[in-house]
């Protein structure tokens, strides 16, 4: 009798343990209309406030990397919504900048290339050469005058190469898009060579995460290694934008997909119970404040991976919906996305009434893929 009771108790205990895990597997799912409405509200708020400072942000130059990241998400939203007003907004930016990449930090700096992602996507829609030519000439110059600098941070002209992880979102997708559009593999070859050099330098093979730059190789934060959420979000989202331009089965495709899957596996383990990723990925207990830019980019990457058959839906769908639901908690009634960590290079602080354009870009990227998943 005691043996039978023991078996029954064990089974009951196991059922309870499984039940405790069910909320993660049964994360609340939104309808397509709900996702669409949320994206529209956030996009409209951002456009309305684009030229005005406030909510913790200043007005950035149109070619600034912050805006470049916004345009990536806004371009995806423009294509999804099929409302010409959003494409017109982006085209107006291109006309204002004369379709040139940024120049404030120098010709080689990855941040100045970010806006090129929007230019090339608009070129795909219209075929107007003026949208393509300045970017192509800019990258041609770099190919024929490549930077000879070291990846070490404390060396001259070090940011002429991609020696900080943010750069892997800013510049490589531009090279991949240009290669696909023109059919010229020299752009892809250059990008892959430089990307591998950066990854060999900044990627921690044990954690499957990127250091922001070599200043963090030996740094500790509350006793944990410092892997910045948004920094890794830049990489994870950037990988999707690269892979989308590659031919399946090629060596380049296999390389980037393998890296993407490694990061996905680790990032899944690091998502917090409330759906966010902490600003310091290994130090969630020390950074309990929600943060939406890293969370937005991670959610986008996971959803894109599922939609494109790279990540298994059964393994990762709950991660996506938890991330999306967490983001929804940070959108105000009028459409402002809060809890965006300000410009920086390491874990820090975020506030409910502070936003930034790159956070909105991440949100719109995520929403575009979530819309495809929604019923």
Automatic annotation (TrEMBL):
Keyword Hydrolase applies: yes
Gene3D superfamilies (alphabetical): 1.50.10.10
Gene Ontology MF term list: hydrolase activity
UniProt xrefs under SUPFAM superfamilies: Six-hairpin glycosidases (SSF48208)
Signal sequence range: 1-27
Keywords recorded for this protein, A-Z: Hydrolase, Signal
Entry annotated with the keyword Magnesium: no
Name this polypeptide is given: Putative unsaturated glucuronyl hydrolase
């Amino acid at each position: 009798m005691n043996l039978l009771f023991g078996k029954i108790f064990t089974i009951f205990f196991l059922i309870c343990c499984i039940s405790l895990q069910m909320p993660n597997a049964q994360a609340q799912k939104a309808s397509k209309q709900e996702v669409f409405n949320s994206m529209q509200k956030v996009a409209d708020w951002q456009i309305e406030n684009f030229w005005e400072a406030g909510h913790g942000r200043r007005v950035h130059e149109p070619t600034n990397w912050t805006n470049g990241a916004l345009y990536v998400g806004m371009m995806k939203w423009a294509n999804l919504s099929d409302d010409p007003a959003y494409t017109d907004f982006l085209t107006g930016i291109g006309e204002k900048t004369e379709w040139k990449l940024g120049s404030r930090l120098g010709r080689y700096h990855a941040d100045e290339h970010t806006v090129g992602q929007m230019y090339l996507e608009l070129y795909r829609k219209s075929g107007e050469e003026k949208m393509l030519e300045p970017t192509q000439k800019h990258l041609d110059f770099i190919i024929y005058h490549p930077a000879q600098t070291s990846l070490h941070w404390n060396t001259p002209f070090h940011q002429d190469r991609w020696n900080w992880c943010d750069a892997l979102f800013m510049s490589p997708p531009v090279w991949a898009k240009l290669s696909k559009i023109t059919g010229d593999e020299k752009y892809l070859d250059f990008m892959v060579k430089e990307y591998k050099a950066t990854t060999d330098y900044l990627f921690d093979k044990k954690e499957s995460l990127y250091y922001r730059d070599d200043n963090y190789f030996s740094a500790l934060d509350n006793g944990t290694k410092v892997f910045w959420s948004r920094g890794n979000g830049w990489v994870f989202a950037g990988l999707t934008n690269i892979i989308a331009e590659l031919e399946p089965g090629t060596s380049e495709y296999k390389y980037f997909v393998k890296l993407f899957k490694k990061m996905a596996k680790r990032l899944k383990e690091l998502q917090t119970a409330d759906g966010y990723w902490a600003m310091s990925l290994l130090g969630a207990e020390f950074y309990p404040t929600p943060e939406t830019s890293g969370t937005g980019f991670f959610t986008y990457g996971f959803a894109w991976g599922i939609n494109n058959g790279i990540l298994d839906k059964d393994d990762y769908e709950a991660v996506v919906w938890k991330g999306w639901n967490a983001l929804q908690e940070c959108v105000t009634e009028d459409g402002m996305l809060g809890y965006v960590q300000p410009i920086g290079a390491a874990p820090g602080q975020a506030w409910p009434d502070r936003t930034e354009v790159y956070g909105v870009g991440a949100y719109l990227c995520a929403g575009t893929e979530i819309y495809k998943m929604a019923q």
